Amino acid sequence: MPQRHVVVASSVGLHARPAALFTQAAAKAPVPVTIAKVGGAPVDARSILFVLSLGVAHHDEVVLTAEGDGADAALDQLAALLAQDLDAAPAGS
């Protein structure tokens, strides 16, 4: 089963806006994706409540997992998203 280990770059971790952006992207993935803190239980990455319940802080490492056609591409996209500061102001603001 494909996995990606990612260090969360958002300055507030996966809270509020960053969590919403991440779960929206996960919901668009062609396969179900789970997210977990290293050593923790995985949760559905499409659920903002589950993602918020993880309590992921800035620089925490998470594990993304998926299985099926398109899993690697979906994980690559979601990992790249988490590697950005999603709480930073969008360019041009």
Question: Which properties best describe this structure?
Answer:
alpha+beta, four-stranded antiparallel β-sheet, 93 residues
How is this fold's topology laid out?
Layout: E1 3-7, H1 16-28, E2 33-37, E3 43-44, H2 48-53, E4 61-66, H3 71-82
Helix pairs in contact: 1-3
Uncertain stretches of 5 or more adjacent residues: none
H/E series: EHEEHEH
Q: Cα-atom Rg, whole angstroms? A: 12 Å
Alpha carbon gap, first and last residue? 40 Å
Shape: globular
CATH-defined topology? Histidine-containing Protein, Chain: A
Q: At the fourth CATH level, what is the homologous superfamily?
A: HPr-like
- Helix/strand-derived category reads alpha+beta
CATH top-level class: Alpha Beta
Number of domains: 1
Mean pLDDT: 94
Short description:
The protein has 3 helices and 4 strands, in the order βαββαβα.
Please characterize this protein's 3D structure.
This protein has 93 residues and is an alpha+beta fold. The chain has one domain (3-82): HPr-like (Histidine-containing Protein, Chain: A, 2-Layer Sandwich), CATH 3.30.1340. It is 33% helix and 19% strand. The chain has helices at residues 16-28, 48-53, 71-82, and strands spanning 3-7, 33-37, 43-44, 61-66. It has a four-stranded antiparallel sheet with strand order 1-4-2-3, with helices on one face. The longest helix is centred in the first third of the chain and has 13 residues, at 16-28. The N and C termini lie far apart (40 Å).
